[in-house]
Each structure stands twice: as structure tokens, then as C-alpha cells.
Design a protein that fits this description.
single chain, 68 residues, mainly alpha, 4 helices, elongated
Length: 68
């Protein structure tokens, strides 16, 4: 059951949990996807990059991780 639950965490939710000082729930590919700057942590910078990428994409602009 725990493995199923871990795979359902989203990056923003994981950021909120880690910011509150609790154990990071992401341990696998989801963590790697949430760690957009690849520094080994899911931080506010990662959340900002994810939301920026999403905003550009939603606005019909070219969304590129290198430019976010």
C-alpha cells in the first residue's frame, strides 16, 4: 500500500511536505521528476520552475526546461 501511495505524490505536494520539515515522500522516479534542477532536493526553486513551465505551456508559448 505504501509503494502505491508514494507513486501518487505530486511535486508541489512533496515540496509542501519537505518544507514543513517532514520526511520526503518521493523516493523514486517521481522524486527525480520533481527535482528539476537536479540538486538532490525538491525545493521552492523546483516548484517555481515547474509552475513556470506549466504557465508557459498553458499560454501556448514554448516551454523549455533550459529556459525556465
Amino acid at each position: 500500500m505504501q509503494a502505491e501511495r508514494q507513486s501518487s505524490w505530486s511535486a508541489p505536494t512533496a515540496y509542501e511536505i519537505e518544507s514543513a520539515g517532514k520526511e520526503m515522500p518521493l523516493k523514486d522516479a517521481a522524486f527525480l521528476a520533481a527535482d528539476t534542477d537536479e540538486d538532490g532536493e525538491v525545493t521552492l526553486d523546483d516548484a517555481f520552475r515547474i509552475l513556470s513551465y506549466y504557465s508557459l505551456s498553458a499560454a501556448g508559448r514554448e516551454a523549455d526546461w533550459e529556459k525556465v
